[in-house]
Specification:
Aminopeptidase; five-stranded antiparallel sheet; 12 helices; binds zinc ion
Length: 367
């Protein structure tokens, strides 16, 4: 069985390093289509690989799935949903000649690591979490009548630290009080910590109606950032943690959306300074809009800050378990139990499909 699984995964990897038609382990063909310099694969091949069939899913989308996993897309849009959680693809889905096409880079760097995180990496154990409360000192970040961003970033960070330490993680804070650090100083701190992941905590500002949570990971090599659409970015490198980045983002973001009930603004790509030169799995988490009257008040509250901290903490536990094969010995059993249940991690079931048999946190509607 394990040999078969390995073969299947190798076949998928082969798809992305070669051009043209390639065989995969089920004996079918992946037809590569090149459009304006971007390689695409056909959704029907994707469905065949994951054993997905067309199904009822998100309204207004075309949906495919099996068991409790459903993916949804819309032609000409960059929205991509897994079990109703939103991601932003690097390239729009294309409808051509009766086929729906999704870019090969999105398949490799987003879809597969999310659907099958355990196949994507053999990354090491997570021993330390580097928490980066954004802004500080003379840099207040976003400011509104209800809260200053630098303050709520720090408040969530302290709560998160407490929760992680109670579970046995080491924590390094880039700042513990109201002081200014450059972005490079934050990155330098993180890059010195082995076996770590990096979580930068921010809150948003925008037009008064804007609300919701969004999580950023570094745009993979060869893709543009939605925030700076220039060809120059296509030449910039991603980093060696692309798969881990998206897995960590998925684990944290999905819990934050579920626990807070906030609008899901999605897991998005960016080339923010703190994400570009980091050498560890990293995300930048935006916990809501301080500029919105209702959300700004919530963000200022201990209750909401605690929900965010718990969501990030549970996300880290799940990520550690799936990616790092880590068994944390919690001091608080109910907390880790809840985190595991929330992750959808379960013992191998005889009824599981082969692709799911090694555990898959995104295979659950409770991703
Ligand atoms: Zn910020």
């Amino acid at each position: 069985m394990m040999r078969l699984i390995t073969t299947l995964y190798c076949a998928l990897l082969t798809l992305f390093v070669c051009a043209g038609e390639l065989s995969h382990a089920r004996g079918g063909k992946w037809d590569m289509v090149s459009l304006q310099g971007v390689d695409y694969v056909k959704m029907r091949d994707v469905c065949s690989f994951y054993r997905f069939a067309p199904c009822k899913g998100r309204e207004g989308c075309l949906s495919y799935g099996a068991g409790n996993r459903v993916i949804s897309v819309r032609p000409n849009r960059q929205d991509f949903y897994v079990n109703n959680f939103r991601y932003v693809l690097s390239y729009p889905v294309v409808s051509q000649g009766g086929d729906l096409l999704i870019s090969a880079i999105d398949m490799k760097k987003l879809v597969d690591p999310v659907l099958r995180p355990r196949f994507s990496t053999e990354s090491g154990i997570v021993k330390t979490v580097v928490i980066d409360p954004g802004h500080g000192g003379h840099d207040a970040g976003a400011v509104s009548a209800w809260v200053r961003e630098k303050d709520c970033n720090l408040a969530v960070a302290h709560k998160l630290r407490k929760k992680l330490e109670s579970l046995g993680y080491k924590v390094v804070m880039t700042r513990e009080d109201d002081r200014f650090l450059t972005l490079q100083q934050r990155v330098n701190i993180a890059n010195q910590v082995p076996n770590s992941i990096f979580i930068s905590i921010h809150h948003n500002s925008g037009r008064s109606a804007a609300t919701g949570i969004e999580t950023f990971t570094l745009a993979p090599q060869g893709t543009t950032s939605p925030f700076a659409r220039t060809r120059r970015y296509a030449e910039l490198a991603g980093n060696n943690q692309d798969s881990e980045n998206i897995a960590l983002a998925t684990s944290v973001h999905s819990r934050a959306i579920r626990n807070t009930g906030a609008i899901d603004r999605g897991i998005q790509r960016a080339r923010f300074s703190v994400l570009c030169t980091i050498k560890r799995p990293a995300i930048l988490f935006e916990g809501g809009f301080v500029s919105n009257a209702q959300e700004g008040r919530r963000i200022a509250s201990e209750e909401y800050q605690d929900k965010l901290a718990k969501s990030i903490c549970d996300g880290v536990v799940s990520y550690s378990a799936v990616i790092g094969r880590q068994q944390i010995r919690p001091t608080n059993k109910s907390s880790i139990g809840a985190a595991r249940r929330g992750s959808g991690i379960r013992a191998t079931s005889k009824s599981s499909t082969r692709l799911r048999s090694r555990g898959n946190y995104s295979g659950s509607s409770r991703m």
